Amino acid sequence: MNDKLKIIPSLQGGVFTKRVDPSKLTFGSQINPQQGFISQWAPENFSNQKTNFNLSSGLLLEYYHLYLGVCAYNVNQPDEGLYGSNKLPLRWNFHASYNLIISEKTLIHFFIRYQKQQRFYYYQANVSCILFRHLILGTGYKYSDSPYALVGYKHDFFTLQLDYEKYYSYLSGGDLSAYEISAFF
Fold first, then answer.
1. What is the residue extent of each domain of the chain?
2. Can you say how many angstroms the Cα of residue 5 is from the centroid of all Cα atoms in its chain?
3. What pLDDT, in 10s, does the model give residues 49-100?
4. Whole-angstrom Cα distance, residue 58 to residue 20?
5. Model-level pTM?
6. Containing H/E element for 28?
7. How do residues 100-153 score in pLDDT, each as one tens digit?
8. Which listed site, 63, 81, 138, 158, has its alpha carbon 20 to 30 Å from 152?
9. H or E, element range at 185
10. Cα separations (Å) of 133 from 99, 130, 154, 181?
11. Burial per residue of 132-168, b for 16 or more beta-carbon CB atoms within 10 angstroms, e otherwise
């Protein structure tokens, strides 16, 4: 096989526990307006706690400065339901990036990502530059009408970054914005 091509498989496993204390739950059907609480909630087929194993896997292909990857989360679709069956659905993540090296001190990074879980999906596209070996400038677009811009500083041991995101909320019917500060070590 070509020595410039790297194939990197990954496997991830984890254990999670979900708990509910039914004595802390109150529903409208339990309340009598004249007498207060009159009944406790006692459902059939209810489990107070459930522990599961979750398995995920991925594959990354690297060829020169091109990276292609795919990940599958919740491969075993663990049942997390406390009141009947509720399987955690499979989630897919596809991503690609390319580093265009202009010079020793300048790089342009292109990135796209697509995620899907049942009928929900997310996509993102980003272009960022590293100038003078340390200055980061970039812009991108996320699903749901959300453009963003970023500026940062890259050091050999850490990266600091400030993002500004502007998005339209269909729920409130207006424009919203957010700042995000990130530190990577």
1. 90-184
2. 27
3. 889 999 999 999 999 999 999 999 999 999 988 878 889 999 999 999 999 9
4. 32
5. 0.75
6. none
7. 999 999 999 999 999 999 999 999 999 999 999 999 999 999 886 789 999 999
8. 63
9. none
10. 14, 6, 7, 20
11. eeeebebebebeeebebebebebeeeebebebebebe
